[in-house]
Design a protein that fits this description.
Helices cover 40% and strands 16% of the residues. It has 321 residues and is α/β, with parallel strands linked by helices. It has a single domain (6-320), classed as TIM Barrel, CATH 3.20.20.70. It binds 2-phosphoglycolic acid (PGA). 2-phosphoglycolic acid (PGA) binds next to strand 8.
Length: 321
């Protein structure tokens, strides 16, 4: 059994207006409340995913965190919805789908760390394969974003020692944790080089120093400069994203174990989680989450309906407990 909190994250991509997001969250919170109180699936739900009738409720002691990553335009709505449910604040967090590395200025169309922190985002997804391949984000840009977020956290440490904690009314509380996405395409998978490719993606994202651009392939890494307190890696093989064909759980376990060991051997990261993304549904969550090194999931398509995302969360918690 895993010792750390599992992470069940929803990446809404370019879906849902702020009004749709509000309705979604109302419905999701209602299910969460019913689950908390009544504590069980009805028989239809159990049959639909083939679980036995004695499946127990695990909400009360759930060692799981739910992360919602709505579009930027829906972050405020999501923030307000979570604020209105203080009971859920410990288990439900927000993530931005992207963030820019400069702190402010003339960068039309971009969004800064302060802007997403103002909506109390705890996480920022960085380097999603759709950003890499559709929007041409390269390794250097991704490395700069990771560096900027870690550097922001370092500055917060300094601020805190000076007793200069950010004012809560500005809602800029807490640090920002990167969710760094990595994963190979089908061609790389077929060539048998997925492990090397993922290791190179990790290195390039974590090897950037603000004082020189040629550190990308060099030997200065952010861990030398900044101790990484918390990092989430989302392993999302491109061939599995949105295809309905997720990774085989055994293959997922191998890659997750590799990522975990590679990072703990080469970097200093206090709190590392490696989550999986790519066609996760309520039907396959159980087999994925029961693997030792799969610390959670990042869900795209199957997160768009509150019921199916709720089922994913519910099955994950029950498998885990
Ligand atoms: P998917 O997307 O669940 O629709 O495959 C996952 C992701 O891209 O994060």
């Amino acid at each position: 059994m895993k010792k750390k909190k599992i992470i069940i994250a929803a990446n809404f991509k370019m879906n849902k207006t702020h009004i749709e997001m509000r309705k979604y969250l109302e419905s999701f919170f209602k299910k969460l409340k019913e689950f908390g109180i009544a504590g069980n699936f009805n028989d239809d739900m159990k049959r639909s995913v083939n679980i036995d009738s004695n499946y127990k409720s695990a909400f009360a002691g759930a060692e799981a965190e739910i992360i919602f990553a709505p579009a930027f335009t829906a972050l405020n709505e999501a923030y307000n919805a979570i604020e209105a449910h203080p009971k859920f604040k410990n288990i439900i967090k927000l993530a931005s789908q992207n963030v820019y590395y400069e702190l402010s200025g003339a960068y039309t169309g971009e969004i800064s760390i302060d802007m997403i922190k103002a909506f109390n985002c705890s996480y920022a997804i960085i380097g999603h394969s759709e950003r890499r391949w559709i929007f041409n984000e390269n390794d250097e840009l991704i490395a700069k974003k990771i560096y900027a977020v870690l550097n922001y956290n370092k500055k917060k440490d300094t601020d805190n020692t000076d007793n200069n904690v950010h004012n809560n009314t500005e809602r800029r509380c807490g640090k920002l944790v990167p969710i760094l996405c990595v994963g190979e395409n089908l061609e790389i998978k077929k060539s048998g080089k997925a492990f090397d490719f993922v290791a190179a993606q990790l290195d390039s994202a974590l090897n950037y120093s603000a004082d020189g651009s040629d550190n990308i392939n060099g030997n200065i890494n952010v861990a030398d400069d900044i101790d990484i307190e918390k990092l989430i890696i989302a392993y999302e093989p491109i061939w599995a994203i949105g295809t309905g064909a997720p990774i085989e759980p055994e293959d997922g376990e191998k890659m997750h174990k590799f990522i975990y060991e590679y990072l703990t051997d080469n970097y200093s990261i206090k709190n590392l989680s490696v989550i999986y993304g790519g066609s996760v549904t309520e039907k396959n969550i159980k087999n994925l989450i029961e693997k030792d090194h799969i610390d959670g999931v990042l869900v795209g398509g199957a997160s768009l309906e509150p019921q199916s995302f709720f089922n994913i969360y519910n099955f994950a918690v029950q498998t885990y407990s």
